[in-house]
Every structure is written in C-alpha cells, then in structure tokens.
Amino acid sequence: MNQGKYVFAQLVEFLDHHKFEDIVRKYGGNKGLRGFSCWNQMLCMIFGQLSARESLRDLMIVVHAHKGKAYHLGFGKAPALSTLSRANIKRDCRIYEDFATHMIGYARSVCRNDCFEVRVKGNVYAFDSSTIDLCLSVFWWATFRKRKGAVRLHTLYDVKTHIPCFVHITPASVNDMLAMDHIPYEESSFYIFDRGYNDFERLYTIHTHKAFFVFRVHGNLKFRRIYSIPGKGDGVRSDQIGVFTTGKSPQRYSEKIRRIRYHDAENDIAFTFLTNNMELTSIEIAMLYKNRWQIELFFKWIKQHLRVKSFWGHTENAVKTQVYCAIIAYCLVSIVAKALEIDRPIYEILQIVGISLTDKTPVKQLLGNNNLQNIKEPDCNLLLF
Q1: DSSP assignment, residue 374?
Q2: How far is CA 6 from the centre of its chain?
Q3: DSSP H or E run through 331
Q4: Burial of 171 by CB count in 10 Å (0-12 exposed, 13-18 middle, 19+ buried)?
Q5: SS3 category, 233
Q6: What is the Cα–Cα distance from 59 to 181, expressed in whole angstroms?
Q7: How far apart are CA 315 and CA 310, in angstroms?
C-alpha cells in the first residue's frame, strides 16, 4: 500500500479527508479559491510542525526545495510565502479547531489505557493553562500586562490516554476560572484542578452535572466538620465531611463536601483537597490529584517539540490556526504509533519522522527498528504509549 509513497504522504493517510472537507464546507473555507485549498494549507502547517520549522519563511524554504514533490506530499503547487501567510490570517481558524476536535476524539478512542492506577467508572481529566509570552507591539490583541503580551492555552487533558481533549486559546489577561465555563462535563468523570481555580460556584456546576472534582485548596479555607471518615494512614492526616460556613461560599456551594488533608512524605509537602466524591478512599483521591502533573508534562513537552512558542503569524486567527495544527500533528503521531504498534516514545518518533518526511521508506519499517537504547528524556516517561 505504501510502496513509492513519501513518509509524509503515508502519515496523511491517517487523516480523514472527507471529514475535513465537511468542516470546510460548513465554514465556506474554500469559497472563491483557485488553487491553494484549506487541505493544502493544513498539510503545509503539519509538515512545518513535524519538521520543526522555526518560522514561515523557514518552512517555505524547505517546501520549495522539494517543490517537485509538492503534489505527492499533498501541498498541490508549492505555495508562495505570501499565499500561506494570507491563508493563516484570513481563513477561519474554526476549521482547524473543529478538525482538531475530531482528531482528539479519534486519538482518545485508539489510545485508551485500561490499566489506570485508580479504578473509576468515568474518565479522568486534568484542567490547567500555560502562558506563552509574546511581544505586545506585534501581537497587539494578546493583552496581558502594560508592556507585555501573552496568550494562554487552557487545556483539558485526558490523563488515561495522554491526549488533550480541547484547547481554548485566550489573551493572558483573561482569568483562568472563566475558561472553566467551556469544559464539556461528563457524568461520572473526574476533573482535577489546582489552586488557581478557586471558584465554588463553578465547582457546584460540576456537581450538578453528576461529575466529580478533586481540587487543591488554599490553607485558609473556612470549613465546618460534620463528621470524619475513619481510615487514616499512608500520609492521610484527616478525611472529613462538612460544609462551608463563611462569606458567600455556602450560597455558591450549598451541598456537603469532603475535605482531605494529605502529607507527601517523599517531598515533605502538605496538601488539602476538596472533592464531592464520597466513594473513593482518601488515598485514591490523593492519587488522582497526583496525576494532575501529567498536564504539566504535556505543556513542557509540546513547548519543546512542537512549534507553539514562536508563531508564524501575528493575528489572533493565525496564532490559533498554528496551535490547532500543532494539536492535529500531536494526535496524528499518537494515532500512527498506536495503529502501527510502534514501541517508541512520541519524542523519538518525531525525531525520526522529522528528517524522513520526504523518504519513501514504509513508516512501520522506519520506526520499527528499535534495537538501539531509547533516548531517555527527563520527565516525559508518562507520555509513552
């Protein structure tokens, strides 16, 4: 099937072209275009992500160096720099956002991990944001501080599959808690938050959706204990059921809530958790929160290995298009690794694929030679498939 096809063309076969064209028609993306379609644009952007291009000009130099292969790579006629730049500025970024959502769903279905350490009925998600600094005079819309610009990537991360469920991009001046309104809550699933999401009204929204949250709180929380749950030990200092008592907290969260105090002996850190789940043990709640750090590893990983720190366009539409194409590329590599049963970390796959996109070696053969000792990359062990 892959005889004579370039490595990049083999990877593209895992993208649903028909689904993408349905999305393009929804937003009228190809209306009035003569040659360089939205599909060609997306493939150019994915090619830039996989080959680790630092700028749009850098990407165009490589594309034009292989312009004789452009049609077979999926670019159509090799575009001019200005053509791709205008496409990123003007074509609706929601096209790539919707397709990224489709790829996320596909990747989660094939990368599911049934050996998660805590047995829960639903999915387990971590929610957090990462700030990317920008020059305010260039990215005028990305307001943050008086003389500084930045954007935030608000991300819901599936800790069982290591796939981001969605990425909501805002100027960094937008409060983190407002991004919680965009989370599609699922019944019986767990949502893990750090201290920056101290909003009891929004936590109560999770409760009304019959979902669960695990939330790390500040030490000055006013809480009235009703009764304690026995079973201390293994770092658990207390496990109590109670209600809020001061300020507007009782009106914002009127139900009983569970407070767990836990001491991490290894790092000598004390944690206080709130949760609306009354079934799991206190240790299991603590282990769920421990998995929140996977989203920190994910942010570190994509900033190191995908192009989401330096942007190839200055408008909000261009920035969002680039980020969504980076997510598509991440999901694509995850899907290929699982479908071809490649026993390598995603980091190694990107390293190999990045210098082999215009080779004609079958991808499984290219990535299957795993006799050498794997490159050990700090803090990325949780991203193995």
Answers
A1: P
A2: 28
A3: helix 316-339
A4: middle
A5: strand
A6: 36
A7: 13
DSSP structure string for 18-70 = HHHHHHHHHHTTTTT-SS--HHHHHHHHHHHHHTT-SSHHHHHHHHHHTGGGH
Token pair 């949780």 is at which residue?
382
A 10 A CB-CB count for 222 gives 10
Angle at 189 between CA 280 and CA 218, to 5 degrees: 65
Residue 164 gets the label, from left (phi > 0), alpha (psi -120 to 50) or beta, of beta
Count of beta carbons in the 10 Å neighbourhood of residue 1: 6
- Express each pLDDT in 61-107 by its tens digit: 999 998 888 888 888 888 899 999 999 999 999 999 999 999 999 99
Question: Rounded to whole angstroms, how far apart are CA atoms 178 and 123?
Answer: 22
What does the angle CA 348 – CA 351 – CA 356 come to, to the nearest 5 degrees?
Answer: 125
| pTM of the shown model | 0.84
Distance in Å from the first CA to the final CA of the chain: 25
pLDDT digits (tens, 9 = 90+) for 273-324: 999 999 988 988 998 998 898 899 899 888 888 888 889 999 999 999 999 9
- The answer for 74, left when phi > 0, alpha when psi is -120 to 50, beta otherwise, is left
In whole angstroms, give the CA distance from residue 240 to residue 257. 8
Angle at CA of residue 319, ends 18 and 32, nearest 5°: 50
DSSP, residue by residue, 242-293: EEE-STTHHHH--S-EEEEEEEETTTTEEEEEEES--SS-HHHHHHHHHTTH
Strands 190-193 and 236-244: unpaired
3-state SS, residue 372: coil
